[in-house]
Amino acid sequence: MATKKKSTEQEMSVEDKLKALYTLQSYLSEIDRIKTLRGELPLEVADLDDEIAGLGTRINNFELELQELDTNTKLQKGKIETSKARIEKYNTQLDNVRNSKEYDHLSKEIEFETLEIELAEKHIREYGQEIVSINEQIDIANEQLKDKTTDLEHKKKELDDIISETKSQEETIREKAKKTEKSIDPRLLAAFKRIRKNARNGLGVVLIQRGACGGCFNKIPPQKQMDIKLGKKVIVCEYCGRIMIDPEMVGAKER
């Protein structure tokens, strides 16, 4: 079986190889066209997914901050209650002081606890302002999340519609391309794929158009044009590196 395959490859002329490459290029160009039809939608969908995930993380972080502020607020309120209880106790003790020293000591304690209450109240006000600010940011983020989610649903539907319309067609073309690849010499196929990868428009094989390369449109010397027309060897453009084929060889019309 291997011997038969090898024999077939040896029997395949350069012209046949070029025709097979042109056929493969036609299939791949059609797949490229389908991808172009989908446009930037796949990237837009991916970007929206990332943005939505980022907004979700942001909202979650805001909610964690709110929980921390709530805990801190309760802590400060607890300090206020403790200080008030101490002030009440010190005021009661003031009624029973025996000397000015005890009076001064209790008065200072009352003053200290009063300052503690004022400080705690200041912290509570600050936490309250932060809570208001964070809630506003959460509202903005939720609104953005709502808009982005709606946008994503529309983009996904649009993409799904295009994919459903072209999926079967693309699969059929891909199967034809794979089948064609098997008939091409591996080294030539590898060279073609390398050229195609580096080509701006994905064209690894181009037709001669009015004496010029169909890829970069640079003029081809007459002798080289004749060599391409004869199809006895694979010839690449000296400017862009694409493989060149005479239109008549593949039954194409020269533009």
How would you describe what is shown here?
The chain has helices at 2-11, 14-38, 41-94, 100-182, 186-198, 222-230; strands at residues 205-209, 212-213, 243-245. The protein has 255 residues and is mainly α. It folds into two domains: 2-38 and 185-250, Helix Hairpins (Orthogonal Bundle), CATH 1.10.287.1490; 41-168, Four Helix Bundle (Hemerythrin (Met), subunit A) (Up-down Bundle), CATH 1.20.120. Strands 2-1-3 form a three-stranded mixed beta sheet. The longest helix is centred in the middle third of the chain and has 83 residues, at 100-182. The model is unreliable at 1-9 (pLDDT under 50).
Largest sheet: 3 strands, mixed
Task: Give the termini distance in whole angstroms.
Answer: 43 Å
Number of domains: 2
User: Considering DSSP H and I runs of 4 or more, what fraction of the residues is helical?
Assistant: over 70%
* Overall form: rod-shaped
Q: Write down the secondary-structure element order.
A: HHHHHEEHE
Name of the CATH class of the largest domain = Mainly Alpha
Please state the average pLDDT score. 90
Radius of gyration: 39 Å
List keywords for this structure.
255 residues, Helix Hairpins
List the SSEs and their pairings:
Elements: H1 2-11, H2 14-38, H3 41-94, H4 100-182, H5 186-198, E1 205-209, E2 212-213, H6 222-230, E3 243-245
Parallel strand pairs: 1-3
Antiparallel strand pairs: 1-2
